Amino acid sequence: MSFATADYRVTLGGKPILKGLAVEATQGRTLALLGANGAGKSTFMKGLCGLTKAQGSATIDGIDLLSATPVVRAQLIGYVAQDLAHLDVRLSTYELLLLAQQGSSRGWATGKDAQRKASEMLELLGLQRFAERQPGELSGGERQMISLALALVRSPRLLLLDEPTSALDLANQLQILEAVSTYTRQQNIVTLAIFHDMNLASRYADDTLMLHHGHVHCSGPTRTTLTPENLAQVYGVDCRALSVDEGTYTAIYPVSVLESMRGQAITTA
Ligand SMILES: Nc1ncnc2c1ncn2[C@@H]1O[C@H](COP(=O)(O)OP(=O)(O)OP(=O)(O)O)[C@@H](O)[C@H]1O
Ligand SMILES: [Mg+2]
């Protein structure tokens, strides 16, 4: 396994949020990280980045992220956070793309290399028109796409995407996730992506893992893991899995909240 955690634990405010997770992910593949609001998905990623204290182990290519220095973690990880307020700075997208490459995993980029790579990344994601704009002046969706460009331009080994399409329109959801899955395959990196849209997880995630009550409820290939049974157990929702275009895609249609869940405060951590 290229990426693996063992007995991965996070406690916040005296409360155990993640209670000893074994998560595995393979290079060249995208793993969807699913679970209800408050399940600990963002916390899982923040622990890997060093933004939250985590215990146990989490390795990428045999390097333990939890004992690595912040510099090494930053070289290995590309992170698109759920909250993008940190992008509100007085620099253009292009300047940020150059800055992001300083001391990246490929070493210190020369000016020319960094400029070429910044331009390539804007082109890959179709964001050339935002090069001279400041992200703080852009819409939520535009800012989300620029955050992805900033994560990728550093050539990460591990790409962490926290609801990367939550602010994107239909066309951009498809284009951005297509670009991410192609990049993941071609560069042979490990991508973990948090989704609340089951149809996007179904279409773009090779593998799926569901968090529930601080534990891994299930994990494996998406087609055998993203099932109505697991969705009922983890979200308390009655769902149908529908074949689209003669089985090319599986759509997930949520029908109703299960009777046992009605009126309950949904807390899962
Ligand atoms: N700083 C903190 N102190 C105490 N508890 C916290 C802190 N940050 C998060 N939590 C709690 O940890 C739990 C997990 O939060 P987290 O943000 O990881 O959830 P999530 O799965 O990403 O949810 P969502 O889908 O809503 O983004 C929640 O119950 C939250 O209230
Ligand atoms: Mg979250």
Please state the oligomeric state of the protein chains shown.
Answer: single chain
Output the CATH topology: Rossmann fold
First-residue to last-residue Cα separation: 27 Å
State the CATH superfamily name. Answer: P-loop containing nucleotide triphosphate hydrolases
CATH architecture, please? 3-Layer(aba) Sandwich
Given the helix and strand composition, which structural class is it?
Answer: alpha/beta
Q: Round the Cα radius of gyration to an integer and report it.
A: 19 Å
Mean pLDDT: 93
Order of H and E elements: EEEEHEEHEHHHEHEHEEHHEE
Q: Helicity, in percent?
A: 25-40%
Indicate the proportion of strand residues. 25-35%
**Number of extended strands:** 13
Poorly predicted segments: none
* Spatial sequence of strands, sheet with the most strands: 7-8-9-4-10-11
Main β sheet profile: 6 strands, mixed
Q: Number of helical segments?
A: 9
**Which cofactors or ions or other ligands sit in this model?**
adenosine-5'-triphosphate, magnesium ion
